[in-house]
Amino acid sequence: MKLYRILFERVFDPIALYRVQDDMIIFVDVNPAYERVMKLSREDLIGKTFSEVWPNAESRWSSVITECLKHNKTAHCIGESIDVNSYFEAIAFPIQPDMAAVIFLDRTKLKRSDNALKRRQKQLQALAAKLTITEEETRRNIASDLHDRLGYELISQLRTLREIDSKLDSGNIIKDSINELIKTTQNIIAENRSLIFELSPPVLKEAGLNPALEELAKNILAPNKIQWHIITKGSADEFKADDSVCIILYRMARELLINAVKHSGASNVNIIINRKPEIITVAIEDNGAGMFGSSNKGFGLFSIRERLLALGGNFKIISEQGKGLMAVMTCPLKLKNGEILNGSENIIS
Ligand SMILES: Nc1ncnc2c1ncn2[C@@H]1O[C@H](COP(=O)(O)OP(=O)(O)O)[C@@H](O)[C@H]1O
Ligand SMILES: [Mg+2]
């Protein structure tokens, strides 16, 4: 018994013994670690009730004691103690039918690093989403430069070449060369147009997400002989999404459509756009091989999830081997103050 007493006295973690009598929890004993951590002396505690000593304590700290006695087994709780400004994990053991011992394990450091880690994670998510939006702006700037500067120069050049051509007699020896130059210039103009489209589809900005996704499906799926259907629910005018939301959903849908081409072997893809008063869902469903094993192999799905979380949305994959795959992106229509979440909780769970 003396040995156990030494253990009780010397252990670094606070331990308290309580008796429960007529719904009252009474202090029977505490070890020096309890006195040190809780900043209370043993003499002031023994015989006092829990609520006398800790009038402001949250109910979890007393419930853990009564619960362990009620069920005659170890009970457990974790939380912040406002009184001592620490984060504890309390483990309560029944000792006798009316007596329990509680050991308090200090989890403050763990909790702080956990919080710091979660904060960093949120910041990284926000960064990833901002990156997509900034990337889109850069793409738009390059596209508009290609359109306004290079495109303009090329059109002028084509006009000049046509003028020269019209002034040359049919037998002129440079006529063929001029015609060659006209053809090359026309090709460069067409290339420039498709480059502009690839960089930043004007339809996304001008006509909105639904037509842009339709255009995207046509460009990605049709050349791969995959049939596709767009199913829309909810009015795009009534439930209009913020620009940033559209940009992210568009870019992420592109990744999902490319995945369907690359990995699924599907013959049909459905693009389902569902708008509700506060939420927009874009689902890409294929009838291909489905996903087996882990989806953590690549960066695509991971980055979709991170970006959507940063917007306060979420990402789900529903798949069964041989039965296709459905990737569902959910996002709030409007970002709070137009901002990407930077540490606050997601609004959609
Ligand atoms: N539509 C799909 N059908 C079947 N498997 C898929 C589909 N989309 C993704 N996958 C699987 O999930 C993995 C991860 O995808 P992703 O993160 O986009 O990376 P990546 O496309 O670079 O491989 C893919 O390698 C593939 O095995
Ligand atoms: Mg991919």
* Helix percent band: 40-55%
Which structural class do the helices and strands define? alpha+beta
Largest sheet: 5 strands, antiparallel
Can you identify the CATH class of the largest domain? Answer: Alpha Beta
Under CATH, the topology of the largest domain can be stated as Heat Shock Protein 90
List the helices and strands and how they pair.
Layout: H1 2-10, E1 15-21, E2 24-30, H2 32-38, H3 42-45, H4 50-53, H5 59-71, E3 75-81, E4 86-96, E5 99-106, H6 108-167, H7 175-199, H8 202-206, H9 209-221, E6 227-233, H10 243-264, E7 268-275, E8 279-286, H11 300-310, E9 314-319, E10 325-332
Parallel strand pairs: 6-7
Antiparallel strand pairs: 1-2, 1-5, 3-4, 4-5, 7-8, 8-10, 9-10
